[in-house]
Amino acid sequence: MKNRNITNKIKGAHCAPVLMEEIMDLDKYIKMALELGADHAVEFTTDQIAFDPRTILKCMFGCSDWGFGHTCPSRKGSLMPWEYENVLRKYKRGIIIHSTDKKISQDVSFEIERQAFLDGYYFAFSMSDCACCEKCTGFSGARCANPKKARPAFHSVGIDVFKTVRQFGLPIDTLKDMSETTNWYSAVFID
C-alpha cells in the first residue's frame, strides 16, 4: 500500500488526497523521540492503555504536590481520572516515551506533540511529569510559569503506568531505594 492515495469525497467539497502512510504510520515520531534523547519509544493503541481510577489515591496520599502542582488533578477545575478516561478514549493511538531523565521525558513528549500538531494532528496531546520549573510556582500560590508546556503526568490522569508499559516490555519497577534509577514515562496521544 506504499504511496497509495486515499481521496476524501465530500459532497460539494474538494479535498486533497491523503497518503495512507500519513494516516497509519507513527514511525516518524518514534524515530524523532529517540533522536531527541528518549531511551525507548513505542506505538500504542488506546485499547492498550490501562485505565484505573485508583491512581488518584497515590496522588492524594503520599504525593507532596497534591493541592499545589499546576498539573495535579487536585487543582481547581481539573478533570478527575475517570473523566480523563472518557476524553482519552476518543484517541486511537499514540506513542509512549521512556527516559531515565524526567526533563528529557517531558521535552521529548512536548516536541512530538508540537510536530504532530504541525503535521495536521490538531488534537495531539502529550502527558508527562512536569519538569518545566525547578519548583512549581503553584507551591507559592503563583500562576503557572509555563502554561504552554505544562501537561498532566501520565499517571495523574488515571492511567496505570506499570500495567501499561509492562505489556511493551519496557522497564519499570517500584523503587526500593532513592538511589535506584527512576524510569520516567510520557505519552503523546495522536489523532
List descriptors.
6 helices; two-stranded antiparallel sheet; alpha+beta; 16% strand; 191 residues; single chain
Q: What does the model show?
A:
- This protein has 191 residues and is α+β, with helices and mostly antiparallel strands.
- The chain has one domain (26-190).
- Helices cover 27% and strands 16% of the residues.
- The protein is built from 6 helices and 8 strands; from the N terminus they run E-E-E-E-H-H-E-H-H-E-H-E-H-E.
- It has helices spanning 20-24, 27-35, 55-60, 81-88, 102-118, 161-166; strands at residues 5-6, 9-10, 13-14, 18-19, 40-45, 93-99, 125-127, 184-190.
- The strands form 3 sheets. Strands 5-6-8-7 form a 4-stranded antiparallel beta sheet, covered by helices on one side. The chain has a two-stranded antiparallel ribbon with strand order 1-4. The protein has a two-stranded antiparallel ribbon with strand order 2-3.
- The two termini are 21 Å apart.
